[in-house]
Amino acid sequence: MTDPLDFGRTVARLVRADVTKLSHYWVVLIGFCAIFVLAVPGTMLFHWAEQAANVASNSGYDFALSVVNRLVDAATPIVYVLICILFAIDVSNSTLKCILTRPVTRMELLCSKYVTALGMVLLMVTMLWVVALGAGAFYHGLGDLTENDYVIFEGSYVLGQFAIGTGFVLLCLSAVAALGVTVSTFSSTMGGAIIIGMILFFFFDMASVIPASLGFTLSLGGEPLHVPLSTLGFTNQLLVPLDLLGDLPTGIPIRTWWTPEILRMVVTCTTYFWIFFAISAVGIRRRDFTL
Amino acid sequence: MSACSRRLTLLLLAVATAAASQEAGPFQRTKFEFPGTIQDQLLADVDGDGRLDVLIIHGAAGNLDDHRLAICRQDDSKGFLPCVFEDLPDTARALDVGPLDTAPGAELVLLTDEGILVSSWQGSGFGPPAALEAAATIFAGTDQDVPRPIDLLFDLDGGGGRELVLPTLEGPTLVRAGEAPQVLASPAEVSYSAGSRNGDINSFLRRHYQRRITAQHLTPDVFVEDYDGDGRKDVITMLDNVLRVFLQDEEGGLPTTPSLIEERSTIGDDELRSEFTGEATTFAQLDGDERADLIVMKWGSSEKRTRMDRAIFYSREDGGFSDRPDQVVRSESVFPDFDILDLNGDGRRDLVIPFFHVAPAQAVRVMTQNAIKIQFRLFLMRPDGRYAQGEGKAFVRVDRRVVLDYHLDILRLIFGNEAAPTGRIAPLLDFGADFNGDGYADLAADDGSDRLRIYWGNEQVRYGNSPDLVLPFESTLSYDLIDADGDGRTDLFGYHGTRPVREEIGGRHHAVKRKRRERERARRAEARRAREEGEEKAPEERVRLEILMSR
Fold it and tell me: Which residue among B122, B220, B482, B539 has the highest number of C-beta atoms inside a 10 angstrom radius?
């Protein structure tokens, strides 16, 4: 029986090695630079578009939320592709063989990849929020959330709610990351990982455009909960918490985060995460990395 | 078709519409169904029993020309009698139903392209129409179209019978029994356009010819309300931003020229350049002083197209208004509509303003959840006659916010079998009801999934997070909320089977419209022939009504 502390230490060492490796790898650096490059001019374009269309945001928070809403959709495929090549980098550089010659179990290796992938997702979301809030402060100002000069929410409350919402976004992104790691587990080359990864990603993404009217209705505490088939394409679920956050700039407090829609999102994304984790666990146990 | 067989057909229709009533919580539910397509509806006391009856202007399925009036009368047990049907003449353009004299029963007033027809209620239907010599209305000489209900009958002197106010080019024309018609000087505006906007092929061919001209006559809105708080009803006309008030004197007379003319504008010169900006004026008694206050609404601005500013000018003791607004309510929405209601029963009028935030999240919500989120902002009038406003602040403060989800199946709306409703979509989300008769405004919210949620109102105007009552009720985009039986509790009428009517005048569809009419006339002639020969097929479209009478 593996000592959990030893397991954790090994995973941490592997993650540190991954981070060192990835921070020197130009594909990964370009990927994150692309997210930043996408975010900054994207934010400026969004501001110009608002001005051109005469639909200015009400506040810096409103602006930041709208920006993140758009950018997270654009940046997710980039990080996903980087996650897809996590194993392929090790395989193509033969570093995986070196790692497996050490006293490292395959489960520890898999968990380290998951932690690295989640770290990459966290970095992406942090970058987007920093750019979006920075731009929001620049164009509209932050501070307390006001409407017609009346304070409707204190800044700390808004930021706290943004943090909770981001947590739910990360939960959904962790399912996306799990899909990436699963693809990575079965790939030997970076090209193959990217191609298979993108096919699967767009497969799930396309499922999200199934008309929302198609689905089934569950009863949740006596209230009907419509579950559209588009939920199968779980990638769009990350917009659900952002939708709830969108209430704040309109003066509506978030009384509870446990709305039926959030519950549906949590169940969907958690289920997908564990399915992908199980598949990748099976894959890494059976895979012959010595070739 | 002989008159006898026509009567027989209408009788069979009446039998087919036998209303099914059943209890539904604190309501009595009644459902009607009969062949045809709703074109419009009105509620009026036809038989003089003090209860409002439902009148449905409808056409035969797929027929643009064959207009009928279904009259569904209320019985004395919150139910309805089977509908009776009246054919409307092809010449009918507008109609109203109400007591024109003090005799029991209402009159049906029809404005036609040739004149005015009046017929009285005779127990089971309206009698033969009689021509009324009054004035040439704006409908004189117009093409056939769907007859529309228009308020023509007003009880100006409080005598029980009503006076007729006719829309004419010279201005509203007041017709009282035994008196010559009186024209109130508030003439229609006539605008025109000459040229090629109608898709005139000749304009492309660079030839010299007299181009077609489109002219549009715009008569003012006409209100009959007490404007100055003297207890007598006045006539107020409104066209653009100009309010013309004809004050009634002690003898019941009205001046021919306006007693007062009010015009306020809040649009700045820089905003006039913006295509998004518009302005409209209305009036209402807001602060409880019985005198009308002005509300000038401006929508759009050079910075934000969805901005809606409602500038309020409170009436002063001398009846005048200040040049600058006393208060401004700023909100944001796509539509300029709002409600003026007494929500907490204090005798003062509160504002209910729908707020719709244009944000990507809304599009996402429609995409992933088939729902839109609509916020209502409530502004409560305080005892000092003003809405809450902070010291040194430019705008009124929101007192309450109510958020409702509305299920909106976009695809079904676009591609579904049921015809889209006439005009703008107006879901049943309404604060104007008092279902339990406690004097407080209840919130009726159709969730778009055939369920009606009711939130009881209270003195504090705080609605619960969850509804107090949920009833099955077919979602509708066309409804009436009114106390139809005079018991102090609001009743609900939902209409289904509405046909869209293209309202463009003189546009490029004009020729197509005319062609369609000709085709429909031919089809109707064929249908009549088939009826006479016993080959009539069942129409596909059906008019449906669902009524909840409060108990």
Answer: B220
